[in-house]
Specification:
Elements lengths: L3 H9 L4 H25 L5 E3 L2 E3 L44 E3 L5 E4 L6 H8 L3 H7 L12 E4 L4 E5 L6 H8 L3 H7 L3 H5 L5 E5 L29 E2 L8 E5 L5 E3 L4 E7 L10 E6 L5 E7 L1 E2 L6 E2 L4 E4 L13 E7 L9
Antiparallel strand pairs: 1-2, 3-4, 4-5, 6-7, 8-9, 9-17, 10-16, 11-12, 11-15, 12-13, 13-17, 14-16
């Protein structure tokens, strides 16, 4: 037999020693890589994320193929149970992580420590009134663990009745039938079965226009300042309102100190109001500024008398050559700018 030490002496004496050593190293590494890849791909249900494969098991039964997970060794819990195909896993601090699916496609939010109704409304981009209307048994003080029905848009929930049609419901609530279709893809099936729930976007409960007429209301004197510098038509019309005409883009001012409790800047119909801002004042009186082209404040902002809050526009139900004007409403007191 050829002595092994003689072999290595021979190899070291040749120029090919380094090349042979490189080949041996590459071969060994290749064997390890091959073995590792077989262990990963043996299970066809292996899932992949940004931290490596996540094994399919009872511990993470909420995961689906294609889910992008942040990190590794994530477990399925109450806090991260909402993981959808092709979606990034949400942390427990994200509002969507506390949503509960319902049979009719609506969403329920489980109240967390520190939540408030106004804060929940802001999280989901809907009005506080929408939450109150959709949860008639809701207590004034919410507690962790309470479940709140959340609509996908500001509006009301309608329980269907025998003989209902899309047009009859839209007429009753004074909204565009197309908006009902947009937010209720299965509206026809819902209408065919009494007692089902229909989302009515931008609607308000029947008999509640939100703003009162001027009869028997207190006169607050000089509490309000003129909210725009254009032409005040001075004619009191529906909802205790007056129209002030001016060019689109001209400023709209806060008529008094107040908190922004509602606003819409999406170009929606909103029962003819178009874009609008609602302020609540210290005495409980509210003012609405409608048909705006752009809002400069958001829900939760506190503004002072004369602050620039929006721009005059012609959104919603407007008339005339340009339609540009401010529809100014007062709820809870006389409108001081109604002169006829």
């Amino acid at each position: 037999m050829f002595p092994i030490n003689t072999f290595f002496k021979y190899v070291r004496s040749t120029a090919s020693f380094s090349s042979l050593l490189l080949i041996i190293v590459v071969f060994v590494i290749g064997q390890f890589v091959h073995a590792g890849s077989e262990s990963v791909y043996e299970d066809e249900t292996a899932l992949f994320g940004f931290g490596g494969p996540v094994e399919s098991s009872q511990d993470n039964a909420g995961f689906f193929r294609g889910t992008a997970s942040i990190g590794t060794n994530l477990e399925s819990t109450e806090e991260n149970a909402f993981v959808f195909e092709g979606a990034i896993i949400l942390g427990s601090s994200h509002p969507l992580s506390n949503l509960i699916p319902t049979r009719d496609g609506l969403q329920k939010y489980r109240v967390q420590e520190g939540d408030s109704l106004s804060g929940i409304a802001a999280k989901f981009g809907i009005s506080l009134q929408t939450i109150k209307w959709a949860n008639s048994t809701l207590r004034s003080v919410i507690q962790p663990g309470d479940e709140i029905t959340v609509l996908p848009v500001s509006g009301v929930l309608y329980s269907t009745k025998e003989g209902d049609s899309l047009e009859s419901i839209a007429g009753l609530y004074q909204i565009d039938p197309q908006t009902i279709r947009d937010y209720n893809p299965n509206f026809q099936k819902v209408l065919d079965k009494p007692g089902e729930l229909l989302v009515l976007p931008f609607a308000k409960p029947v008999g509640s226009n939100g703003f009162s007429s001027s009869q028997n209301l207190p006169n607050l004197g000089n509490f309000f300042v003129l909210p725009a510098s254009g032409w005040n038509w001075g004619r009191l019309h529906d909802s205790n309102a007056v129209d002030i005409a001016d060019q689109c883009g001209k400023p709209i001012y806060a008529a008094a100190d107040g908190l922004v409790v509602e606003e819409s800047d999406e170009g929606f119909w909103n029962q003819g109001h178009g874009n609008y801002v609602i302020l609540e004042h210290s005495n409980g009186v509210r003012t609405r500024y409608s048909h705006t082209s752009k809002n400069l404040v958001g829900v939760g902002d506190y503004v002072s008398t004369g602050d620039h809050i929006a721009l005059i526009g012609n959104t919603g139900n407007t008339h005339g050559p340009t339609g540009c004007h401010l529809h100014f409403e007062v709820d809870g007191a006389r409108n001081p700018f109604a002169v006829r």
